[in-house]
Amino acid sequence: MTLQRTIKLFKLPDEPKTKGFRKIQSKDMNAAHKLLDDYLKKFKLCPVFTKEEFRHWFTPREGIIDLPSSVMQHPVHKTVRAAYSFYNVSTKTPWLELMNDALISARNIQMDVFNALDLMDNKKFLVPLKFGTGDGDLQYYLYNWKCPPMNPEDVALILM
Fold first, then answer.
1. Torsion of CA 105, 67, 6, 17, to 10 degrees
2. 103-134 pLDDT, tens per residue?
C-alpha cells in the first residue's frame, strides 16, 4: 500500500463527534465510579476500585491521564508517544463512535500510537477501527488464586 493510500485509509475527523465528550471532572467522579463498578461486575475477573482508588487512577493529570475516555499516555521513545486504553464504558454512545472519538482526542494531543487490549468489550471496536494485531498475548499469573481458564472478553483486569 502506498503512503498516500495508508494516510487516506486511517484519516480521522478533526474533532470528536459525540456531544459532551470531554475529560472527566471532579464533579463526575462519584457517578463515573458507579458506572465503571457496575460495568466491571459483568466480567469473570475484574478489579474493584474504592472511590479513593478510582479518583487516584482516573483524575486527569497533564501528560499522564489526558483523555476523556480514561486513556493514559506516556512517552515510549523520544520520538513516539503512545496512548493506552484501559477501562471504557459505553452505555448510550455506540462503541465505535466512542472509541473513534478517543482516537481523535489522542491524535489531537500528538499521540503517535493508540494501544488497546482485546479484553472486555474491546473486540467490538478493534477490527472495525482498523487496530493492528499485536505481537503477543497478555498472560496473567495470579499468585494464590484459583482461577479457571477464561477468554479475553471475560477478563476486565488490566495491570498497570
1. -40
2. 999 999 888 889 999 999 999 999 999 999 88
CB-hemisphere CA count at 13 Å for 142?
13
Instruction: Assess whether pLDDT exceeds 90 at residue 28.
Output: yes
Largest alpha-carbon pair distance within the chain?
A: 52
**Cα distance between residue 24 and residue 41, in whole Å:** 22
- Quote the cell numbers at residue 75: 512517552
- The alpha-helical segments, DSSP class H, found in the chain are 3-9, 29-40, 51-58, 95-108, 123-126
Could you read off the pLDDT of 46-78 as tens digits, one per residue? Answer: 999 999 999 999 898 877 776 554 444 455 555
For the domain spanning 62-154, the CATH number is 3.40.630.30
The domains of the chain are located at: 62-154
C-alpha distances out from residue 123 to 7, 9, 112, 152, Å: 24, 20, 21, 9
Which residues lie across from 73 on neighbouring strands?
Answer: 83
Amino acid found at 42: K
